[in-house]
Design brief:
By secondary structure, this protein is mostly helical. The protein has four helices and two strands. The chain has helices at 12-41, 48-52, 72-77, 88-107; strands spanning 54-57, 63-66. The longest helix has 30 residues, at 12-41. It starts with 11 loop residues before the first helix and ends with a helix.
């Protein structure tokens, strides 16, 4: 006598949708966290550079974060006449661990 068991799991599309939605939230939370961190540490003279830092949606799982001031790269990396004053890279590095942990939790679903 043989015993046959059938296991059916038909919630894969729902799980996939839920995981995608959670990943979307994690991406955008990280993007806005980076924006906030960068604005907290960017050097301020007139405030133009600080106010130019923003999040731009670029799809469900993509967001761009950065300044729009033309001279922003010179502040971040420095020039031959002025030292670097990084603000975007440190902001991203501060947010990275929480983002990675959030994505790991989503992957465990």
């Amino acid at each position: 006598m043989s015993i046959i068991a059938t296991v059916v799991f038909d919630n894969l599309p729902a799980l996939s949708k839920q995981a995608t939605e959670l990943a979307h939230l994690a991406v955008y939370k990280a993007a806005f966290d980076i924006e906030g961190q960068a604005k907290a540490v960017v050097p301020v003279d007139t405030g133009f550079l600080k106010n130019s830092i923003s999040v731009e949606p670029a799809g469900d799982l993509t967001a761009y974060v950065g300044p729009h001031a033309e001279y922003s790269v010179h502040v971040e990396y420095g020039t031959s006449r002025s030292r670097a004053q990084p603000y975007m890279r440190p902001a991203a590095e501060r947010v990275r661990p929480a983002f990675i942990e959030a994505m790991k939790q989503i992957a465990k679903m």
